[in-house]
From TrEMBL:
This is Dehydrogenase. Keywords: Oxidoreductase. Residues 141-287 form the GFO/IDH/MocA-like oxidoreductase domain. InterPro entries: Gfo/Idh/MocA-like_OxRdtase_N, Gfo/Idh/MocA_oxidrdct_glycsds, GFO_IDH_MocA-like_dom, NAD(P)-bd_dom_sf. It holds the Pfam family GFO_IDH_MocA. One of its GO terms (molecular function) is oxidoreductase activity. It comes from Bacillus canaveralius. Residues 4-131 form the Gfo/Idh/MocA-like oxidoreductase N-terminal domain.
């Protein structure tokens, strides 16, 4: 079976998730399209890189991603570093002829994302952006139902992504609160996942009208280091600095196909953990999903018998998307790890079969256009049309 060598840049939270997926993919999807070989992992210091190699099962480690990108033994570059590094690494990897998977958001904004899309297109390499939530079987099942016309023409999409890890003002000012590293706040970090799902399920978003809020204007400084996502609080004497990104946004949406909707995201909603939800109303039914109950898709079909009409639960399992590789009984439990395994499977399949995979850098770019438009709308207090922005990007 063909083996492909991976150079993974970054050894934090996502380094762990992607390494797990490389190890797990052949166990779930067999025969595996390819055997992913964990070749080299990169982090910023020798200590971090060495530890990541030991923990995540890589043969080698390095502290300079350029060296790995140009290593002829490497086939795939996996970018799991903070957002401001994605573009430079992805463009260099494409120029070196490597296939590239990058974590989300693809870039700091649409203009930068376009340079990445141009680079992978020119190089003819495969590319993917890691919006893994659409690989939750229940989300893929919603897509199947929509394609089969089970709820008819879509009228409304309502999406949320609510967390609470930054609601405490002593949660440190990690890279996720710094515009120059993150690009934006809750919008880029978690809102983009919902924008991806909205585009995947309903189609292109054409117009947005949004507000953003920064509820906690300064936080205790954290210089460097992985983002512990609020689990480690700063001491009271740590100096504070300004937060220059949004804590929350709420946006109205218009879709190309005529549907309307809304998306909101915040990391300051006490009691919410990974509350990624959507409800879709169509002319013939409705669908509802909540990632905190990710084995379940709630469905209501207009032609259900009158005496039993209402939302009911479909538990995903072997009969549903990706079921052939996952667990043999519905509701045994799909985890975050499985979404990453499925993502990896689809990426490797696209490499071996020479097909397009989605979401790719074009999808990542389209999501960035929506994110930029949300920020512009919030700043100007007007509806923003996305195609007008496209025209300004060369
Ligand atoms: P993290 O803070 O846990 O880890 C980042 C790692 O990258 C650290 O070990 C850091 O030292 C290393 N690093 C930074 N600059 C580097 C460089 N130039 N070369 C090599 N290593 C470098 O961050 P996390 O949570 O892993 O986030 C990484 C990316 O993954 C971000 O773009 C984030 O938005 C995305 N992400 C996606 C998730 C998803 O569900 N798809 C979940 C969490 C993060
Ligand atoms: C923090 O908000 C975070 O880790 C995001 O960066 C991820 O994209 C999301 O999947 C989980 O939460």
């Amino acid at each position: 079976m063909k083996k492909l060598n991976i150079g993974m840049i970054g050894g934090g939270f996502m380094g762990k998730a992607h390494a797990l997926a490389y190890a797990g993919m052949p166990m779930f999807f067999w025969p595996s399209p390819v055997i992913p070989h964990r070749h080299t992992v990169v982090d910023v210091t020798e200590e971090l890189a060495k530890e990541a190699a030991a923990k995540y099962g890589f043969d080698h480690y390095a502290t300079d991603w350029r060296q790995v990108v140009n290593d002829p033994d490497i086939d795939i570059i996996d970018i799991v570093t903070p957002n401001n590094t994605h573009a430079e690494i992805a463009i260099a990897a494409a120029k070196a002829g490597k296939h590239v998977i990058s974590e989300k958001p693809l870039a700091l904004g649409a203009e930068e994302a376009k340079t990445m899309l141009d680079a992978v297109t020119a190089a003819g390499v495969k590319h993917m952006v890691a919006f893994n939530y659409r690989r939750t079987p229940a989300v893929a099942l919603a897509k199947k139902y929509l394609e089969e016309g089970k709820i008819g023409k879509v009228l409304n999409f309502r999406g949320t992504y609510l967390q609470d890890w930054s609601a405490d003002p002593n949660s440190p000012l990690s890279w996720r609160f710094q515009k120059k590293i993150a690009g934006s706040g809750a919008l880029g970090d978690i809102g983009t996942h919902v924008v991806d799902i909205a585009r995947y399920l309903v189609g292109e978003i054409t117009d947005v009208n949004a507000v953003t809020k920064t509820w906690i204007p300064e936080r205790p400084v954290q210089t460097g280091g992985v983002d512990k996502l609020g689990t480690v609080k700063s001491a009271s004497d740590v100096p504070k600095a300004a937060v220059d990104v949004d804590d929350e946004f709420v946006s109205l949406l218009k879709f190309e196909g005529g549907a309307v909707g809304s998306i909101e995201a915040t990391r300051n909603a006490w009691g919410r953990n990974n509350f990624l939800t959507f409800e879709i109303h169509g002319e013939k039914g409705s669908l509802y999903f909540n990632y905190e109950r990710r084995d379940e898709l709630q469905v209501c079909f207009a032609d259900d018998p009158g005496d039993s009409k209402g939302f009911r639960t479909v538990y995903t399992g072997p009969a549903h998307p990706y079921g052939e590789g996952l667990w043999p009984i519905p509701a045994l439990g799909i985890g975050y790890g499985e979404t990453k395994i499925i993502e990896t499977y689809d990426f490797f399949k696209s490499i071996v079969e020479n097909t397009e995979v989605s979401p790719n850098f074009n999808d990542g770019y389209r999501v960035e256009l929506v994110a930029d438009a949300i920020l512009e709308s919030a700043e100007k207090g007007v509806w923003v049309n996305i195609e007008k922005t496209v025209a300004n990007i060369t």
